Amino acid sequence: MDLKGLFKKTTASEQYHERVSKGKVAETDASPNVPDGLYTKCPGCGKMILTEDLYANNMVCPKCEHYFKLDAHTRIAMVADADTFEEWDAGLEEKNPCDFAGYEEKVEGLKRKVGIDEAIVTGKAKIDGRDVVLGVCDTRFLMGSMGQVVGEKMTRAVERATEQKLPLIVFTCSGGARMQEGIVSLMQMAKTSAALKKHDEAGGLYITVLTDPTTGGVTASFAMLGDVILAEPGALVGFAGPRVIKQTIGQELPKGFQRAEFLLEHGLIDNIVKREELKDTLSKLLKMHEVPKNNYMQQYKDYLDDMYKKKVDLDAEEFEVNDLGAWDKVQIARSNNRPTALDYIYLLTKDFYECHGDRAFSDDGAIVGGVAMFGRQPVTVIGHQKGINTKENILRNFGMPNPEGYRKALRLMKQAEKFKRPIICLVDTPGAYCGLGAEERGQGEAIARNLFEMADLNVPVLSIVIGEGGSGGALALAVANEVWMMENSIYSILSPEGFASILWKDSKRAQEASEVMKITANDLKELGIIERIIPEFPVVSAENINRVTTNMKRKITEFMIKYQAMEANELKEHRYERFRKM
Amino acid sequence: MFNKILIANRGEIAVRIIRACREMGIKTVAVYSEADKDALHTQLADEAVCIGKAQASDSYLNMERILCATIATKADAIHPGFGFLSENSRFASLCEKCNIAFIGPTADIIEKTGDKSQARNTMIEAGVPVVPGTKEPIFDAKTGEQYADSIGYPVMIKAALGGGGKGMRVVRAKEEFESNFNNAQREAVNGFGDNSMYIEKYVEHPKHVEFQILADHYGNVIHLGERDCSIQRRHQKMIEESPSTALDEATRKAMGEAAVNAAKAVKYRNAGTVEFLLDNKNNFYFIEINTRIQVEHGVTELVTGIDLIKEQIKIAAGEKLSYAQEDVVLRGAAIEIRINAEDPSKNFAPCPGTIKDMHIPGGNGIRIDTAVYTGYTIPPYYDSMIMKVMAYDKDRESLIKKIRSVLGEVIIEGVTTNLDFQYDILNNERFISGDVNTDFISNEFGL
Question: Please, which pLDDT band fits residue A465 given cuts at 50, 70 and 90?
């Protein structure tokens, strides 16, 4: 039965008609309505979001995860400890260098309307108790564009951070240079960058957090100069805006072009960080960039020895090298079950924070690296990373780095040097990737550059071959003060297959080759190529990896005690002599 | 009084509310999901607004859409019915912010009564009896036994982190306490790694008896007698009656007063239900306050002659209660049978589908609330209850004969229902004698 239109409508009460005739049904302030500000429309999904939900969710749309733009003070409240922010340089005198018509009025109007004095707020605050200098751009003020005042406030903040030896964190969002101030705006790019260079040379930490949108002259100056560059999910970051590029080249841009995720993939930023994790991430990074006054390495060693003794009978421990043959070791070193660099990183260190990208072309999955804590000592750890299945191996390119992988490694080593962190490298590669792109981007140059620069690093460097140490691709992470090998790892001029193919024109004779090539830890120890063999009791696996790595940590503490006592020059000289005699 | 009310619900309760509004000369707005465009409530209201897709989360639970529909149709109040947003404090608060009268208690009351431990403490302060139990965890048998002695056996020992019967024991005598406590605690330690235990009075074979209350905005609170809802299958009520066979006048009076006190303790407003457990010695214990109109409200309407929906609307419009406690007299007996589109032979799985044909009986003392009609397709997205068959008579004996007769006349073709199962209950000797408790269905039918 179709009921449509069959029922009679309600007969309104007499009172109702009376009220209508008296005009009492007309709309008043007390009529149902949605008060202003109760809901906020999400520009991402177009849905109405209850404003209180939005605030409770750090101004991220609970429905589509769109990141709302934040004003400077909301941002400061989100990352700084309560009531610790002290603003600097508010109310600097505005100039109109190009006598741009109406500019002064516009700026004055905005000051009143927005309630901040310019497109950046700077000052000092605490994050989890640590002092920092903060700079926070605000798009409400002429799209966060950088004119003379923004450049000046930023520069002064940098200078004071340098002077007071404080870390500096800047949140960027800007359309770029301020058009109304013409060439004077352009000069702010150089001014701020120059100040940052001084901060860098003084060893000061600088972290940038790129937020939506960061473009133009700000991207091309202080935004991209962070020691660590973070970005918010989905943030648009670029030099030329997408509209300009589209008009210039006359073609459609790919989806996600210039978004934070695109930048990460292209090696331009270290990480994408969600707002809910922002404060914790910054706090962790601040902690790991402090040079400890005392790293308590001897106490850490005693603690580890003690713990190890409790579990293992040290007398029975007297370690004998297993009697597996070279070819067996080749198989073990290449096995899919073998622990990877990340496995070791998580077991040897704490709080590993991975940093991505070579800042130029791409983020190479075959190399992982970042900052971590070894006991109370911040260290930089870098390793070749293999996958444990096909999918992962495709992402990791089977542990075969491209030039950008080596460049990422070098970038992180240079940073370790700046922040006086020892470096631990974990070597596990069949070799540097052999491919078209790798050659186009200078694989040889990238490896050479690492050998060259690593020789000169003024911090202790330890390299541990954990699996395959394949040729130059391995050596590019092994110009160290000491090189150790896991008991069943191999380290060679090239693969046994390659060797057999070159010398005997028959790659099937790989086994035979492995036996004559001197590639095992034992052989290389005898040859004086490495300093130490790490026992695997007898083959490292998920069952005994805790024992293996606890033992490794004991030995690493010994390394640290020995080499951290050396001056930079001694370290370099030691490294030089190590290879000089080979 | 309101000019226009939006009904934020569907099914027979939406129809029930629309009818009350029509009688009061108040215009109505129905909201409906895409699956409900042919539903009775959609067709019967003066206006109807589609608020989204079939899934309740996109429609009947979508606060923004419902608020927009209210404002767009210039309705001045929302009746939430039961289920959906009826006990959602946030929705009530949004209505308030948008100058829309929410026909029910304030957001604050909904929130306070929804928090079980807070409500329990409020009731203890107000002198309303609650199931006696330890406030702090107990760690040893001796302290536990002392407490058990003080509240009297049987008691229930419960692990603080317990679940699924683990770490739980019923103790009927003092001698059994120590060993039971230790066993339960060991289970708790092994199962949840925690040895904190609670002890509470074990209410054996309780009846579920609830009191209907009405409270206006001026502190006046009355109760409208009880409903006995002991016939339940897995906590789903199936049959409700008023009065309860278990209550004598003194107990009814005591419980009614407790219900009123409970309501006053939370400064209750509008219609609500205070639920109690009643043991076989006429001890009663507060469980919770339901801050909405109930499915079974019709039973109370039949024995009191008071239209609860109209009272709700009047209270929300700021009128004073039009009845004093002494005006409320329970006359005769009433019963409600819930008819669900479900298959008792398949563990009561819902059976949506099209009603090919149906016959709805009538006659003296019969009330049928439903939203289905011949040709109607029951959508699979919502509750499976499709009809409430109610009857009224001078006493329980005549009433059971009447409801059995009328139920035998209900015909619904095309979908499987629980009609026959309900008919069996009406013929059960224990049911007829009135000797029922919440274990009735599981004991008599093994379900």
Answer: very high
Report the alpha-carbon angle B202-B204-B210, nearest 5. Answer: 95
| pLDDT of A5 above 70 | yes
- The pTM score is 0.78
Taking the mean position of all CA atoms in its chain, how far away is CA B193?
Answer: 37
Domains and CATH numbers, chain A: 33-68 (no CATH), 69-288 (3.90.226.10), 297-580 (3.90.226.10)
- Alpha-carbon distance A17 to nearest alpha carbon in chain B (angstroms): 10
**Can you tell me the ipTM of this complex?**
0.80
Q: What is the mean pLDDT of residues A317-337?
A: 83
**Closest Cα in chain A to B93:** A38
Nearest CA-CA distance, residue B118 and chain A, Å:
25
The H or E element spanning position B189 is helix B177-192
* Per-residue model confidence (pLDDT) at position A324: 87
The CA distance from B36 to B49, in Å, is 11
Domains of chain B with CATH codes: 4-103 (3.40.50.20), 141-201 (3.30.1490.20), 207-445 (3.30.470.20)
- Please tell me the distance from the alpha carbon of residue A63 to that of residue A26, in angstroms, as a whole number: 36
Whether residue A29 is predicted with pLDDT greater than 70 in this model: the reply is no
pLDDT score of A538: 87
Q: Which active-site residues of B does the annotation give?
A: 292
Question: What's A181's DSSP letter?
Answer: G
Cα separation of A58 and A51, whole Å? 11
For chain B, the first-to-last Cα distance in angstroms comes to 48
* Alpha helix positions (H), B73-140: 89-97, 107-114, 116-125
Per the CB < 8 A criterion, the answer to whether A428 and A340 are in contact is: yes
DSSP annotation of A378 reads: E
With contacts defined as CB-CB under 8 Å, which chain B residues touch A6? 43
Q: What are phi and psi of B269, to 5 degrees?
A: -135, 150
Residue A469 has pLDDT above 80, yes or no: yes
- Give residue B447's pLDDT: 79
Taking contacts as CB-CB distances below 8 angstroms, the residues of chain B near A50 are 64, 94
Q: Which amino acid is at B59?
A: S
- Report the alpha-carbon distance of residue B359 to residue A550 in Å, rounded: 80
Question: What contacts B223, CB < 8 A, 6 or more positions away?
Answer: B211, B212, B213, B214, B256, B259, B260, B274, B325, B328
Q: How confident is the model at residue A317 (pLDDT cuts 50, 70, 90)?
A: low
Interface test with B, best of A15, A34, A42 (most B CBs within 10 A): A34
**pLDDT of A21 over the 80 cut:** no
Q: What is the structure's pLDDT at A428?
A: 96
Q: Which residues of chain B have pLDDT under 50?
A: none
Token reading at B156 = 């229930």
Say if the Cβ atoms of B38 and A25 lie within 8 Å: no
Q: In angstroms, rounded to a whole number, what is the distance separating the alpha carbons of residues B78 and A440?
A: 69
CB contact under 8 A, A25 and B21: no
Neighbouring-strand partners of residue B288: B275
- List C-alpha distances in Å: A353 to A246, A284, A349: 36, 9, 10
Say how far apart CA A341 and CA A34 lie, in whole Å: 57
Helix (H) or strand (E) holding B145: helix B141-151
**Residue A17, φ and ψ in degrees, nearest 5:** -60, -35
> For residue B115, what pLDDT is reported?
83
pLDDT at A415 over 80: yes
Facing B25 at nearest CB: one of A6, A11, A32: A11
The fraction of chain A above a pLDDT of 70, given in percent, is 96
Spatial contact of A169 and A209, defined as CB atoms under 8 Å apart: yes
State chain A's mean pLDDT as an integer: 92
B44 vs A7: CB contact, 8 Å cut-off?
A: yes
Residue A127 has pLDDT above 90, yes or no: yes
For residue A252, give both structure tokens. 């459609």
